[in-house]
């Protein structure tokens, strides 16, 4: 009987996500034995600094990559948006899930029904901070770190007027009822990969066990979004945003980056879905051009 060890971060959201992938594998082949190996990453241990100050997204995957390479696990499950743009070539992405809700959402403190203008909106990324300025002019914005439950605790303790969190994470945690308002993807362009789960495996090994998990629309969108962000410099500290959709054979990719003065620059490109990476690169080059013109 086939036995696979599944690597995941140990946060509640990460474990729920790993189990979603495991369910999809069992659906295809109930005979496969799956074992979850949850581990703490450097990014989970350092909670008092924003990510860009401590080294960015890689901090959430280093330990998981090592476990894949030394055979402690056979594949790892990640939030696609937490993955660095440049992966270890020995550990390619082997599958992308169907995309959950890609939108960001506003969450108010328990028992509070409007924004307190004196307190900041807590958000963990420059991407959200830049877009919040336009949505709530004058409202202060401050960083917040920690897993989703920790952030909600800080909110309910009265430290923030509201939080902006990914709807997908809240829904997976069963916390959908905390959402006060959804931002459309035009109001707040999502992070590359938001709402998609990605599986990483060792190169050269068959990942056929993933066929019930794999979603071609997500794969095409994620590749285009990630190519865009990669071409702009990988940006863990840059506020880069990217969101793609597919309709028939056409992929539409909208992207954002900011000028040196901090002003957001948006653009959209359409093309064949089979050319997602090239579209991502072309859109990034257009945005780089606009960024210099506006500088
Ligand atoms: N950086 C944390 C993270 N990574 C993925 C999600 C949400 C789930 C997803 O995008 O698939 C979250 C929480 C959040 O941003 O609110």
TrEMBL record:
> Know the name of this protein?
Porphobilinogen deaminase
Family to which this protein belongs? Belongs to the HMBS family.
Q: Which Pfam families match?
A: Porphobil_deam, Porphobil_deamC
Q: Which PANTHER family match?
A: PORPHOBILINOGEN DEAMINASE
Catalytic activity reads:
4 porphobilinogen + H2O = hydroxymethylbilane + 4 NH4(+)
Cofactor(s) listed: dipyrromethane
Alphabetized HAMAP family for the sequence: Porphobil_deam
Q: Which UniProt keywords apply?
A: Porphyrin biosynthesis, Transferase
Q: Which organism is it from?
A: Anaerotruncus colihominis
Q: In this chain, where does the modification S-(dipyrrolylmethanemethyl)cysteine occur?
A: 236
